[in-house]
């Protein structure tokens, strides 16, 4: 992706995505965003660096924040929280939520059962010495990485806060079904459907912090990077986990979150601060954010070039455009091969979600897809979260049965029978066949 031809093509693909977003009414112009954040009454709060020196505590304090590797990050195990087998399936540094563990919980996934996706391991970061460093040509005065605008956790907490309910879902959620359902080889963690969770996130709008840091109108990309250890793949050090967010999305609904479900962000989910990018693939939501580069040109990292695009026979050699919104999906709150009593009415429950917005309907089949019934949608309807659904079933015959759920979202997108193949196994949105045993 180094030739100007490739860059131009990449950039125009991205621009087309932004335009598509705006056409659906979910984008706001940079001008609007600046006007909005200018009206927030920020004069009353301590300001960040990048404003006149008298008011700016932070500019030039980069040395106060220890460099990467010397702390404030201390490596812990891959995952810090307990991973009891009734709540999680563990894959190396990652842990998948068991869907049956969501059966009796409300709209939000409690922290004790929220999936964890770590490229390396959870770092333990000292919130008192942590600083967010902002730099780049997209900020006034073009602060450099060595002399960034900084913001402490205390300063962040004093800024106007916002709360949103949103799912975070790994782009590879459901990956194992490419193999088990479609007979296709894919690489990556063999998730079932548990690499997704919905939480309430509280923090500060990224637009607010960018504005205070001196956002310039020609900013193009916003690149948060994590304070976890560098990711090494195939013997190559790819650097810190980081992926650019187009400025339009960054200003629209992205949050720098310091609370999850009303508690300080737990270590595994990004303490002290993580990025939450609603509706987009999980890798966008960088945990343990330490730096944010704001560029005046498109940025490239391994996470928007060699990963998180579609690769394979149906795609260009350099891959598709970078993946953004998640596709529509649904899941039963049941273990695979769950046992259900014959001749007894059972309440089948599940959840459905989509990166395109709310869920319009869910259809369920208890006979392997021969007939379908419409499930009852219930609970909060949050476009960036998920919708719970339920349906009764009285299985008459013992033996193996296959349950299916097919969700349709507000845009009319519905789950297909077959997910488009891609070698890295992203975005398995096809209807999943869920086996159960009736006895
Ligand atoms: N710094 C950092 N941020 C990260 C990751 C990571 O390994 N390091 N993993 C990403 C991926 S691939 C996903 S799916 C989500 C998972 O968020 P969770 O672990 O809080 O569920 O975090 C994203 N943010
Ligand atoms: Mo992910």
UniProtKB/TrEMBL annotation:
Residues 119-300 form the Oxidoreductase molybdopterin-binding domain. GO terms for biological process: sulfur compound metabolic process. Its cofactor is Mo-molybdopterin. It comes from the Bacteria. The keyword Metal-binding applies. Residues 345-426 form the Moybdenum cofactor oxidoreductase dimerisation domain. Keywords: Metal-binding, Molybdenum, Oxidoreductase. One of its GO terms (molecular function) is heme binding. This is Oxidoreductase. It comes from Virgisporangium ochraceum.
């Amino acid at each position: 992706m180094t030739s100007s031809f490739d860059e131009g093509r990449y950039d125009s693909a991205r621009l087309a995505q932004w335009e598509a977003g705006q056409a659906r009414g979910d984008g706001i112009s940079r001008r609007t965003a600046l006007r909005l954040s200018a009206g927030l009454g920020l004069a009353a709060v301590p300001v960040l660096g990048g404003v006149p020196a008298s008011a700016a505590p932070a500019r030039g304090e980069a040395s106060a924040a220890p460099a990467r590797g010397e702390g404030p990050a201390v490596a812990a195990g891959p995952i810090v929280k307990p991973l009891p087998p009734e709540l999680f399936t563990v894959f190396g540094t990652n842990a998948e939520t068991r869907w049956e563990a969501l059966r009796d919980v409300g709209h939000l996934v409690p922290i004790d059962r929220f999936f964890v996706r770590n490229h390396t391991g959870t770092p333990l970061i000292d919130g008192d010495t942590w600083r967010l460093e902002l730099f780049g040509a997209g900020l006034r005065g073009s602060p450099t990485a060595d002399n960034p605008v900084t913001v402490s956790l205390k300063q962040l907490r004093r800024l106007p806060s916002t709360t949103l309910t949103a799912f975070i879902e790994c782009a590879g959620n459901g990956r194992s079904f490419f193999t088990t359902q479609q007979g296709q080889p894919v690489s990556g963690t063999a998730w079932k459907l548990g690499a997704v969770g919905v939480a309430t996130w509280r923090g500060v709008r990224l637009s607010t912090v960018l504005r205070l840091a001196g956002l310039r109108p020609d900013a193009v990309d916003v690149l948060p990077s994590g304070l976890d250890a560098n990711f090494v793949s195939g013997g190559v050090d790819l650097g810190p986990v980081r992926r650019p967010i187009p400025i339009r999305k960054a200003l629209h609904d992205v949050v720098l979150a310091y609370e999850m479900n009303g508690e300080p962000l737990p270590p595994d989910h990004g303490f002290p601060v993580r990025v939450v990018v609603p509706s987009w693939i999980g890798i966008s939501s960088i945990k343990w954010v330490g730096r944010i580069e704001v560029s005046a040109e498109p940025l490239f990292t391994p996470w928007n070039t060699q990963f998180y695009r579609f690769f394979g026979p149906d795609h260009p050699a350099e891959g598709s455009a970078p993946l953004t919104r998640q596709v529509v999906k649904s899941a039963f709150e049941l273990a695979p091969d769950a046992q259900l009593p014959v001749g007894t009415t059972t309440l089948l429950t599940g959840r459905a979600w989509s990166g395109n917005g709310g869920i319009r309907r869910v259809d369920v089949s208890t006979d392997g897809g021969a007939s379908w019934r419409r499930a009852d949608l219930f609970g909060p309807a949050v476009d960036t979260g998920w919708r719970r659904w339920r349906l009764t079933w009285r299985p008459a015959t013992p033996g193996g049965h296959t349950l299916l759920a097919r969700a349709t979202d507000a845009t009319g997108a519905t789950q297909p029978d077959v997910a488009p193949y891609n070698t890295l196994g992203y975005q398995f949105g096809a209807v999943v066949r869920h086996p159960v045993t009736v006895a």
